[in-house]
Specification:
Layout: H1 10-30, H2 36-52, H3 57-69, H4 72-90, H5 94-104, H6 107-125, H7 128-146, H8 150-167, H9 172-181, H10 185-213, H11 221-234, H12 243-253, H13 258-276, H14 281-290, H15 299-305, H16 314-332, H17 335-343, H18 350-367, H19 371-388, H20 393-405, H21 415-424, H22 428-431, H23 436-451
Helix pairs in contact: 1-2, 2-16, 3-16, 4-13, 4-14, 4-21, 5-7, 5-11, 6-7, 6-8, 6-10, 7-8, 7-12, 7-21, 8-10, 9-10, 9-19, 9-20, 10-20, 10-23, 12-13, 16-21, 18-19, 18-20, 18-23, 19-20, 20-23
């Protein structure tokens, strides 16, 4: 069978991609539907192309399974986060986080505070998912109560969460990118400072400007008081209830794998539900499965607290499976490789090389729906081109991280975008314009590529100290 395989031409390899773009536009923009069916349809088109070019169905099926297997760890974490949110609300863990947040965070500085808080947590844990699933959930509630639109709050959360996912040596992508490019983590992290600092400053300024709009408090003080009183009368509010999220963060910092750390936090939430909120074991199990339903009679509180549960994540799990099945077929049939190699023909110099790398990473996040593939495939394809340009490998690793990692949460059907959607309850395309840090870094990378600023050369010496243009 291997002798009969034919390489798929570029124009043919693009057919499933173009079909996906058209189907997604029709489903999401025109009809307001979810991406699931367009992804399944695109998978069918990709499989048809693969069969026509002599790929066996066994290989195609293996590609789908391998693609899905890439995200099995992520899917398990997603399911546990849903369970954890349900038990945390029933156990009174989330209400105090919102309660104290409303008391200490004025609307004017809320977005800046959100960025900084999420940055600190993600830097310590190395995990954007753990950050969003703990402090992110509470900050969504606080922002909503303060009258700050949730899609803007989600943008600030994602920006802060991915600051640590990009810079922390505990992050898997921070280790993956230099490994693919052929450099070490310390050199990689040090080289990223030159893009991270201006990107972070831009984000701080823009969130500060947006915060001015809400400094006067667009929500009435008496309305906040009503929410505070309602939560206080419906739950036991105590600083002790902040222990579960703190322990989860500490466990992740101590390099305990995320899954057992989150399960530990889930168990604590259930224990607090029984011990401090007068709930039954049956109620805790029900909240873990189907989520918590708030019935205080105050609409704003009920909207904030009615969420979580295993079943709340199933639509997202299905989305991830559909997306990665498509990416797996494209990878197995060689279509992703054909697309990546064709992009090399666009490279004329350092600026165009960095630009092509950035857009390749974004494109693979869209098509392959996985940030690891968006780092590994472009990294593998462009490593030789960076060597030919006389560029040190940390330039490639920085570009892979700054575009592959940071844009993954902006694609609704990618594993990261689907997780943020399910956890924060905000559609990624809604928060995308406000994820300032994630948007700024790819632009800065392209500017550096064309100006030569901080693009370290092989003949600069053994260190990674960047040189000017």
């Amino acid at each position: 069978m291997s002798e009969q395989r034919r390489e798929i031409p570029l124009l043919v390899a693009l057919i499933p991609v173009l079909f996906l773009i058209g189907a997604l536009t029709l489903a999401i923009v025109v009809y307001g539907l979810t991406p699931h069916i367009p992804l399944i349809g695109a998978s069918a088109v990709a499989a048809g192309v693969a069969v026509y070019y002599k790929r066996s169905w066994k290989d195609i099926e293996a590609g789908m399974v391998n693609g899905i297997n890439l995200a099995m760890g992520a899917i398990l974490i997603l399911m546990v986060v849903g369970i954890m949110i349900g038990t945390w609300i029933l156990g009174g863990v989330v209400p105090p986080m919102i309660y104290y947040g409303l008391k200490v965070l004025p609307p004017g500085i809320f977005l800046i505070a959100t960025l900084i808080i999420c940055s600190i947590v993600s830097l310590g844990t190395g995990s954007s998912w753990s950050t969003a699933g703990t402090v992110g959930v509470a900050l969504i509630g606080v922002g909503s109560a303060l009258g700050v639109p949730v899609h803007i709050v989600a943008g600030a959360i994602v920006s802060g969460a991915y600051f640590g996912d990009k810079m922390s040596p505990l992050s898997d992508t921070t280790n993956l990118a230099p490994a693919v490019a052929g450099t070490d983590v310390l050199t990689h992290t040090r080289h990223m400072i030159y893009t991270t600092i201006p990107g972070y400053v831009i984000a701080l300024i823009l969130y500060g400007i947006l915060g001015i709009k809400y400094a006067g408090g667009s929500i009435a003080t008496e309305q906040i008081d009503t929410m505070l009183n309602t939560m206080q009368s419906s739950f036991t509010i105590s600083p002790l209830l902040l222990l579960p999220p703190l322990l989860v963060i500490v466990m992740v910092v101590k390099k305990i794998p995320p899954l057992p750390a989150l399960l530990g936090g889930t168990a604590l939430g259930a224990i607090f539900a029984v011990a401090m909120q007068d709930s039954s074991v049956a109620s805790a199990m029900a909240a873990a499965f189907s989520g918590f339903v708030s019935d205080t009679g105050v609409a704003s509180v009920d909207e904030l607290l009615s969420r979580g549960g295993l079943m709340s994540m199933m639509e997202t799990v299905a989305l991830i499976i559909c997306a990665l099945a498509f990416g797996g077929i494209m990878e197995q049939a060689g279509m992703l490789d054909v697309i990546a190699r064709s992009l090399l023909k666009l490279v004329k110099g350092t600026g165009s090389l960095v630009t092509v790398t950035v857009f390749s990473c974004i494109g693979f996040n869209v098509v392959a729906s996985d940030q690891y593939m968006a780092i590994v495939i472009p990294g593998r394809m462009f490593k030789g081109a960076y060597d030919k340009q006389g560029l040190r490998p940390e330039n490639l690793s920085r570009t892979l991280e700054g575009s592959g990692t940071l844009t993954s949460a902006l694609i609704p059907w990618s594993t990261c975008g689907a997780f943020m959607w399910a956890t924060l309850g905000v559609y990624p395309l809604a928060y995308l314009p406000y994820a300032f840090f994630n948007l700024a870094i790819p632009v800065i990378l392209i500017i550096y590529g064309f100006t030569g600023f901080t693009m370290s050369k092989v003949d600069d010496g053994p260190t990674s100290e960047p040189q000017g243009a």
